[in-house]
Amino acid sequence: MSINCQTCLIDGEWCSASDEAVVPVLCPSDGMQFTSISSGGAQEIDKAVRAARNAFDHGQWSTLTATERGRLLYRLSTAIAENGDRLAQLEAQDTGKPMKQARADMVATARYFEYYGAAADKVHGETIPYLNGYQVQVIREPFGVTGHIIPWNYPAQMFGRTLAPALAMGNAVVLKPAEDACMVPIALGKLATEIGFPPGAINIVTGIGAVAGAALAEHPGVDFLSFTGSPEVGVLVQCAAAKRHIGCTLELGGKSPQILFADANLDAAIPVLCNAIVQNGGQTCSAGSRVLIQASIYDQVVERLATAFTQLTAGGSEEDTELGGLISARQQKRVQGFIDRATAPVIARGQISEKASDTGFFVAPALFGPVDEQCELAREEVFGPVLSCMTFDDESDAIRIANDTDYGLVAGVWTDNASIQMRMAKALRVGQVFLNGFGAGAGIELPFGGVGKSGHGREKGFAALHEFSTLKTIIQNHG
Ligand code: NAP
Ligand code: MG
Fold first, then answer.
1. What digits encode the pLDDT tens for the residues 108-137?
2. Which pLDDT tens digit goes with each residue over 264-306?
3. I want to staple 313 with a disulfide (CB 3.0 to 4.6 A). Which of 7, 112, 321, 476 is the partner?
4. CATH number for the domain running over 8-252
5. Second CATH level (architecture) for the domain 257-443
6. Catalytic: 251?
7. Measuring from atom 8 of ligand 1, which residue has the nearest CA?
8. 181 CA from centroid of ligand 1 (Å)
9. If you average pLDDT over residues 139-163, what whole number do you get?
10. Within the chain, which residue ranges are assigned CATH 3.40.309.10?
11. Atom 4, ligand 1: which residue's CA is nearest?
12. Is the CB of residue 285 less than 8 Å from the CB of residue 153?
C-alpha cells in the first residue's frame, strides 16, 4: 500500500492538507485500502480559490488567447489518450468498474478535451442594430473562478465534462472530487500540469464533502458553481450560491423511463434496456431505471428481460463482467435496502461471480415487476442495478406515468410510429429524449441536463460553453 498524501493541486504545486489529515482509499472489488488521499479543508480551499483568482486576473493563464487555451485542452486530450490504459487501470481499481467501462470512460474524457479544445475559439458575440449613432456589441466573457464539485460514479468523465468547457471559456477552476473516487482526477491534474497548463488554472482539493465541498460552495471568491451529485447536497450548494448571488448548475440524477409501445422492436430494445441499468452498476444519473410496457406485450417483454437478467454477472474489475462492485459498502447497503424493502415481485436476479472477493461491494442485478406507480422502487433513485417494470394502456397513460416523478433527466421511447414518437418527445418532462434507443448521457456534443429534482442548467455541447460564461452588452455612442 502506498501512502500518497500530496493530493491537492494548488497554484501548480502538489501539497497535503495543512493538518496532515488523510482519508483511506478502498478498492470496491475487494474492499481493501490501497492508498490514502489528503483530507483538505477550508484552508486548502481558500488557497486554491486565491490561486485561481490570481491566475484569472494576472497570471499566465489570463494572457492566453482563446486559440492557445484550445491548444492546451487539445494537448491534454492527446495525453489522456496516450495514457488511456494506465488511467483505466487506476479508475477500475478506485471505482470497481469493469476495465471495459473504465477504458470507455477514458475515451470519453479525452473526447471532452478534444471537443472543447476545438471549440475554444469558436464562441463569439454579436452586434445588435440600435439607434442611429450607436454601435452595440454583445460579448461573451468567462465568470472568473468557477467551483466544481463532482461525484464518484464517473470521476474521469466528470472531470472532462465540467472542467473542459469552463477552461475553454477562460475561467480558472477549483475542483473538489468525491472522496470515494479521487485517483484519476489527481492523475489528470498531473497530466495537465505536465503538458503545460499554467499555475492556478486548474486547482484540485481532495477531501470530505461536508468539509472541503462545503467550503468551496461557500467561498466568497467563487463566481459560479457546478455541482453533480445527490438532490440533498444540491440544495445546500444552491443555497450557498444564492447567499452570494452567483449562479450554479445542478445535475442531480433521475428516475428515467424507457417506454415500449406494442410495436417496439424487442430484438433491438432488450439489450439496450439491460445495459441502461447495469452500465456502471446502475450508478449512472441517466440510468434507465423504469421500463414502461404497453399491457399487450408486458408478459413477452418481462420474459425476455428475465432471461437476459439471469445472465448478468457482477465481478471484480479485472474480470470484465457486465458490472463491477458498487462504489462503497455504504452504497452497497443502500441499494440492498431498496431490494429488501421492495413490495413488488422479483422477476429475476443476476449473479455475483464465483471469483469475486467476499469483501467486495457487490450487488446482483434485480428485476422487479409489476411495480406499483406509488411505491418506493418506482419513485426513488436507487443508483444500483435494479430495474422496475410497469404497464400502461395507451399513449396518454404512458405520458402520465412517465411524468409522474419528481425527476426529469432522460427518457427512451420505443415505437416505429413517427407521430407517437414526436408527440411523446414533446410531452415528456425531461432534458433528453431517445427515440428507438437509449444511451446513458449520450454524446459529448449533445446538451444534457434535467428539470425538477434532476436539477437545472445544461452541460455538454455548446450549451456548456454558454453555462460557463456570461454576456456583456457594450453600447457605444459614436455620434
Ligand atoms: P453526494 O453526497 O451528493 O456527493 C456528491 C459530491 O458532493 C461529492 O464530491 C461529495 O463529496 C460532495 N459533497 C457532499 N456533501 C457536501 C456538502 N455538504 N457540500 C458540498 N459538497 C458536498 O452524493 P453521495 O452521498 O456520494 O451519493 C448519494 C446519492 O446521490 C446516490 O445514492 C445517488 O442516488 C445520488 N448521486 C447522484 C449522482 C449523479 O450523477 N447525479 C452522482 C452521485 C450520487 P464526498 O463524496 O467527498 O462526500
Ligand atoms: Mg456523500
1. 999 999 999 999 999 999 999 999 999 999
2. 999 999 999 999 999 999 999 999 999 999 999 999 999 999 9
3. 321
4. 3.40.605.10
5. 3-Layer(aba) Sandwich (3.40)
6. yes
7. 178
8. 11
9. 98
10. 257-443
11. 229
12. yes
DSSP 415-455: -S-HHHHHHHHHHS-SSEEEES---TT--TTS-B--SGGGE
Closest Cα to atom 10, ligand 1: which residue?
A: 209
Which grid cell sits at 377?
Answer: 422502487
pLDDT at 153 over 70: yes
φ/ψ of 25, rounded to 5, equals -115, 125
Distance 293 CA to ligand 2 centre (A): 34
pLDDT in tens, 45-96: 999 999 999 999 999 999 999 999 999 999 999 999 999 999 999 999 999 9
- Alpha-carbon distance of 108 to 114, in angstroms, equals 10
209 CB within 6 A, ligand 1: yes
Put simply, whether the predicted model's pTM sits higher than 0.90 gets the answer: yes
Cell numbers that stand for 204 in this block:
484540485
Q: What is the dihedral of CA 94, 99, 101, 104, to 10 degrees?
A: 110
Best probe residue, ligand 1, of 233, 289, 333 (max atoms within 8 Å of C-beta): 233
| Nearest protein CA to atom 29 of ligand 1, as residue | 230
440 lines ligand 1 (CB under 6 A): no
What is the location of CATH 3.40.605.10 in the chain?
A: 8-252
209 C-alpha to ligand 2 centroid (Å): 6
Active-site option among 44, 91, 251, 459: 251
- Taking the CA of 161 as reference, the closest ligand is 1
* Average pLDDT over every residue of 238-258: 98
Q: Which of 149, 180, 227 to mutate to test the pocket of ligand 1 (most atoms within 8 A of CB)?
A: 149
Alpha carbon separation from 305 to 133, 312, 369, 390 (Å, rounded):
69, 11, 11, 13
Pairwise CA distance, residues 339 & 337, whole Å? 5
Residue type, 290: R
10 Å CB burial of residue 177 (0-12, 13-18, 19+) is: buried
Sheet holding 134-142, edge to edge: 126-128, 134-142, 469-477
